[in-house]
Design goal:
about 400 residues, alpha/beta, two-stranded parallel ribbon, about 50% helix
């Protein structure tokens, strides 16, 4: 009897040991599964958000091209393209929320196009002394120019402390870089390194993005004022009112202007002549996709490809010279047509190659190529992404 009891006790202990070992293995397997599968699920979830963001980008480009064809060009957000996918124009197949907004980056003045004289005029308008304005201008240009030669009131690498940031000799990628420029940081940032009111005022009128001219249709009164200052003229509110259709004749609700002459005809006393256009040079497309706790942000810049535009202008000049030379020699225009055809083919190949360099923007590039065929060299120029 005692032997049977001993055997039963041993069996129970053995079973309990197996259960204990099995429980440890189960916990380990659960932890392993969570560690391995959670990132995969998260990655798959983010890919879904990203796919939706690019789908929204493609749809946005298509809407912009529709406005371009209907109105003969893109001029101002008042045309209706500021929120291109409003009113549920497209729906997310996986559910969730989507927000798409377009702002005209070329409503600001391109910093890359400003000379020392331009910058001095802007800083003096901000109530800085002439000497400080010149120092700010020279220091900023020393930060961005391609050489190490110090301007009269500027600062190059030798003027910076060891182990601190020094001039990268390239265009600024963000206006926040002012924080690291010698002679500049203390003017636009406080003791804690936070942007002050001067910085905020400057950020309203300047852009570090790569474009050539300001779209008058989108420009704020502050930007228009600085454009007039650059021109050496005095700003008058009639300029803004004429551009926005508050004064003068407006037909069929078209408040935007297509050229500078229309602004004058509406009653503006003076109009800036430098760095100005009446169509957007660069549009900023911001897309936010939300689903549950996940969020994906995509920012794309859409506009004219400056390299293609420059190449096209150069080619036109070459073709014109070739054509004139052929006529002078009594030749035909067949060689000119051949050159134009070859140039067009080369340009197309270059555009395709550029579009395919970044796989993450492949679908957006397809839409951009379609847009380019319709109306010039408009395309997605840059994309910034941020997942949850």
């Amino acid at each position: 009897m005692k032997i049977n009891l001993h055997r039963r006790a041993s069996a129970i202990i053995f079973v309990l040991g197996i259960v204990f070992v099995a429980s440890i293995l189960s916990v380990y397997l659960i932890e392993y599964s969570m560690t391995e599968l959670k990132p995969r699920a998260s990655s798959s979830f983010e890919r879904g958000l990203r796919t939706d963001a690019y789908s929204a980008l493609n749809a946005t480009v298509a809407v912009l091209e529709e406005y371009y064809e209907i109105d003969g060009g893109l001029y101002a957000p008042t045309q209706g393209w500021e929120f291109p996918l409003a009113d549920n124009r497209i729906n997310l197949g996986r559910g969730g929320e989507m927000e798409v907004k377009i702002t005209d980056e070329s409503a600001k003045i391109p910093l890359q196009e400003l000379t020392s004289e331009n910058l001095v005029a802007i800083f003096e308008e901000m109530q800085f002394s002439t000497s400080l304005s010149q120092t700010l201008a020279d220091s900023i240009l020393d930060w961005t120019d391609s050489d190490d030669a110090v301007r009269t009131s500027g600062a190059e690498r030798d003027d910076y402390e060891d182990y601190s940031a020094f001039p990268p000799n390239r265009a600024m990628k963000s206006l926040v870089e002012l924080k690291y420029i010698e002679n500049v940081r203390n003017v636009f940032f406080d003791e804690l390194g936070e942007p002050n009111d001067y910085y905020k005022s400057l950020a309203q009128i300047l852009s570090v993005e790569d474009f050539k001219k300001v779209n008058l249709n989108s420009a704020s009164p502050e930007t228009l004022n600085m454009l007039m200052v650059i021109d050496g003229k005095t700003y008058d509110s009639s300029l803004y009112d004429a551009i926005r259709g508050k004064i003068g004749s407006v037909e069929d609700g078209i408040v935007w202007v297509k050229n500078v002459t229309e602004i004058t005809n509406r009653g503006a006393r003076e109009v800036p002549s430098k760095l100005v256009a009446c169509q957007p040079q660069l549009l900023k497309i911001e897309i936010t996709i939300k689903r549950g706790a996940g969020e994906y942000y995509l920012c794309a810049y859409y506009g004219e490809d400056q390299s293609v535009s420059t190449s096209s202008t150069s080619q036109k000049k070459n073709n014109a010279n070739t054509s004139n030379g052929g006529n002078n020699n009594g030749g035909s225009n067949s060689s000119t047509k051949g050159n134009a055809s070859t140039s067009s083919s080369a340009s197309g190949k270059q555009s395709d190659a550029t579009s395919s360099t970044n796989k993450s923007t492949a679908s957006a590039s397809k839409s951009s190529n379609k847009a380019s065929k319709k109306g010039g060299s408009r395309k997605i120029l840059k994309v910034v992404e941020r997942g949850s």
